[in-house]
Write a structure and sequence with these properties.
heterodimer, A: mainly alpha, ABC transporter involved in vitamin B12 uptake, BtuC, two-stranded antiparallel ribbon, 4 strands, B: alpha/beta, Rossmann fold, 6-stranded mixed beta sheet, 10 helices, 39% helix
Chain lengths: 354, 237
C-alpha cells in the first residue's frame, strides 16, 4: 500500500475537524434555539415558505448555469447579468403599462404580467444569445481559462452598460394590486407573490425537464452535452444546439428577473451579481450540469439560507444572525466542494476520450 | 461516376500534415477498405470525408457534388454517415434514444419506425436492451448499436472506423458477418477502415493501403491479399 504523505494526512485531518465542527453547529444551534422556544411553528413555516420562493429564483437562474455547463463545460459568469437585463428590460414594460393605468384591473394586471414577462424574456434571451455569439463562440477552442475571464469581463461590461445607459440608481417597479396581500393557511400568512413565484418556477422547471427528456431537441441537447463530434456525425447542428441552450437559460433568467422584481419591487444595474453567485452555488450544490440537480440545489439553498440564521446560528449566541445568511450560503458552497465536489445529484463521469 | 470520390485531399492536425494528397473512390454497392499501420491517416481520411476535419486542399465529392466545405451535420444530410472509432455511443442515452438520434436528420416517422424494426431484426440483443443506458452495454453490443444507429440515417455511404477494435475474436467475426450481410442484402455502400487487414480484405471488394498520409497501393481485395508487400507489412505472415 502506498503511504500517504504528510500533506495528505494533514488534509484528511482538516476535513475531519471541519466535519466535526459543522456537525457540532448543526446539532448544538438547533438544540439551543428550539429549547428557548423563541420561534413557534408558524415562524418556521414562514421561514421555509420564504426560502422556497427565494430558492425558486435561484433554481431558475441556476438552470442557466447548469445547461450551459452541461453543453460547453464552461461557467457563464455573465449569467447573473442576463438575469439583471431581463428584470431591467421588463421594468420598462411594467413602467409604461403602469403609467397607462393598464395594471389596475385584475384582467389588465394578468395581461400586463404576461406582457412584462414576454418583454423581459425577449430581452434576456437576446442578451444571452449575443453573449454566446460575440464573447464565447470565437473562444470555443481556446483553453478553459480564457472564456472564464471573458465571462467575467462580459459580466462587468453588461453591468456598466446598463448603469451608463439607465443610471446607477434604483428604479422602483410598479406595484401590482392583484399581487398585494397574502393568503392565510391556518395561522400562517403566505404572501401572494411568493405563491406566484413558487408556482411559476415549478411549472417552468417541469416544462424544462420534459423538454430535455422527451423532445427531439432535448435529445439532441443531451447528445451534444455528451459528445459534440459524434452528435455532429448524427446530423445535429452543434452550434444551433449551443445557441438553443443559451436561449433556454436566458429565457428562464428573464422570468426569474421579473419574479425577483415583483418580490423586491426594484431594479438596479448590479442586482444580478449576488443572485448570480447564489444560483451558481445552487448549481454546484445540486451537481453542475445536472438539470434536476440545479432545481433541487436552488430550492435547498433558498431554504437553508432562510432557516439557517435562526436555526443554526442564533442558538450559538451570535448577535445578528440574519446578517449572516450570505455567509451561510457560501459556507455551504465550500462544504460541498470539500466533501462532495460532484454535488448532491452529480455523478463522477469519466473524462471522455480525447 | 463513383458515388464517393476523394481527390488529392490534404489535411492537417495543427502542424502535422496528416494526409498528403489522398485519392480514393467508392462505387455504389461496394465495400471498400482502407488499411494501413497506426498513424497512417486512415481515421483522418474518414474524419475529413465526414467534415470533422476541413481539408486544406483537394475535393470530396458525393454523387458529383463537392461536400468538402460543408459542416459535418450538413454532410450527414447529404447521406454520408460516419460510425466513429471508439463507437461514440451516448452513454447516458438509452439504446432507443441512441437509435432515434441516428435518424435525427429524417422526418418520415413511418420510415424511421420500419428501419428501427429492421435494426432490431439484425441486432436482437439491442431490442432486449432498448431501455438500458448505452453506457451499460458490452463492447460488442455497443458496436452493434453504433452500426445500427448509423443505419438509422439511411446512409448512401456508411463510413466504419475500426468496428472490430477491442472486441473478442468471436465478436469480431460476428461484426464482419454483419458488414458483409448489410452490403449483400441491403446494398449498403461501405468504406471500412480496419487494423485487422486480413478480415477487412476478406469482406471488401477493393482496398487501399495507406502509408503516412499517402496511398501506396490499391486494387481488388483479392489481389492485395496476395501482394507480397501487403502480406509482409500488414498480414503478419
Amino acid at each position: 500500500m502506498r503511504r500517504s504523505t504528510t500533506g495528505e494526512q494533514l488534509a484528511t485531518a482538516m476535513r475531519w475537524l471541519t466535519a466535526i465542527a459543522v456537525v457540532g453547529v448543526l446539532i448544538y444551534g438547533p438544540f439551543q434555539i428550539l429549547r428557548s422556544g423563541k420561534y413557534g411553528p408558524e415562524n418556521w413555516i414562514a421561514f421555509v415558505i420564504f426560502g422556497l420562493s427565494q430558492g425558486s429564483l435561484y433554481a431558475l437562474i441556476a438552470l442557466g448555469y447548469t445547461l450551459v455547463y452541461g453543453i460547453l463545460r464552461m461557467i457563464n459568469f455573465a449569467h447573473g447579468e442576463v438575469f439583471m437585463s431581463g428584470a431591467y428590460i421588463g421594468f420598462f414594460a411594467a413602467d409604461a403599462l403602469n403609467r397607462a393605468g393598464r395594471l389596475d384591473s385584475t384582467g389588465g394586471a394578468l395581461l400586463g404580467l404576461a406582457v412584462i414577462t414576454l418583454v423581459a424574456v425577449a430581452g434576456s434571451t437576446t442578451i444571452a444569445v449575443l453573449l454566446e455569439r460575440i464573447a464565447y463562440r470565437p473562444l470555443r477552442r481556446a483553453p478553459r481559462l480564457v472564456p472564464l475571464i471573458t465571462a467575467i469581463g462580459a459580466s462587468l461590461f453588461l453591468q456598466y452598460t446598463f448603469s451608463g445607459l439607465f443610471g446607477s440608481g434604483l428604479r422602483t417597479y410598479p406595484t401590482i394590486d392583484l399581487l398585494k396581500g397574502s393568503f392565510r393557511v391556518g395561522s400562517v400568512p403566505i404572501l401572494k407573490v411568493h405563491v406566484l413565484v413558487f408556482v411559476a418556477a415549478v411549472g417552468l422547471m417541469t416544462a424544462l425537464y420534459l423538454f430535455v427528456q422527451r423532445t427531439r431537441a432535448g435529445r439532441a441537447m443531451r447528445a451534444v452535452s455528451e459528445d459534440k463530434d459524434t452528435a455532429a456525425l448524427m446530423g445535429i447542428n452543434v452550434d444551433g444546439v449551443i445557441v438553443q441552450t443559451f436561449m433556454l437559460g436566458g429565457a428562464l433568467a428573464g422570468v426569474a428577473g421579473v419574479l425577483h422584481a415583483l418580490i423586491y419591487g426594484q431594479v438596479v444595474f448590479n442586482m444580478g451579481f449576488q443572485p448570480g453567485l447564489k444560483a451558481f452555488t445552487a448549481a454546484v450544490l445540486g451537481g453542475i450540469g445536472n438539470v434536476p440537480g440545479a432545481m433541487l440545489g436552488g430550492l435547498f439553498l433558498g431554504v437553508v439560507e432562510s432557516l439557517g440564521p435562526a436555526l443554526f446560528l442564533e442558538g450559538l449566541g451570535i448577535p445578528a444572525p440574519h446578517q449572516l445568511k450570505d455567509a451561510i450560503a457560501f459556507s455551504l458552497l465550500v462544504l460541498v466542494l470539500v466533501f462532495r465536489p460532484t454535488g448532491i445529484l452529480g455523478e463522477r463521469v469519466a473524462e471522455k476520450r480525447a | 461516376m463513383a458515388l464517393l470520390e476523394v481527390h488529392d485531399v490534404h489535411s492537417h492536425y495543427g502542424n502535422i500534415h496528416a494526409l498528403k494528397g489522398v485519392s480514393l473512390t467508392v462505387d455504389e454497392g461496394e465495400i471498400v477498405t482502407l488499411i494501413g499501420a497506426n498513424g497512417a491517416g486512415k481515421s483522418t481520411t474518414l474524419r475529413t470525408i465526414s467534415g470533422l476535419i476541413r481539408p486544406s486542399a483537394g475535393s470530396v465529392r458525393l454523387g458529383g457534388r463537392d461536400i468538402a466545405a460543408l459542416k459535418p451535420h450538413a454532410i450527414v444530410a447529404e447521406g454520408v454517415v460516419h460510425v466513429p472509432e471508439g463507437r461514440g455511443i451516448f452513454a447516458r442515452l438509452t439504446v432507443d434514444e441512441n437509435l432515434s438520434i441516428g435518424a435525427f436528420i429524417r422526418s418520415d416517422a413511418a420510415g424511421i419506425a420500419a428501419d428501427l424494426e429492421r435494426v432490431f431484426e439484425s441486432f436482437p440483443r439491442l431490442k432486449e436492451r432498448r431501455r438500458q443506458a448505452g453506457g451499460t452495454l458490452s463492447g460488442g453490443e455497443q458496436q452493434m448499436l453504433a452500426i445500427g444507429r448509423g443505419l438509422m440515417a439511411r446512409p448512401r455511404v456508411l463510413l466504419l472506423d475500426e468496428p472490430s477494435m477491442g472486441l473478442a475474436p468471436i465478436l469480431v467475426e460476428e461484426i464482419f458477418t454483419i458488414i458483409r450481410r448489410l452490403n449483400a442484402e441491403e446494398g449498403t455502400t461501405i468504406l471500412l477502415v480496419e487494423q485487422n487487414a486480413l478480415a477487412a480484405l476478406d469482406v471488401a471488394h477493393r482496398g487501399y493501403v495507406l502509408e503516412t498520409g499517402v496511398v501506396r497501393l490499391s486494387g481488388p481485395a483479392g489481389d492485395l491479399k496476395r501482394d507480397p508487400a501487403v502480406i509482409e507489412a500488414y498480414l503478419g505472415v
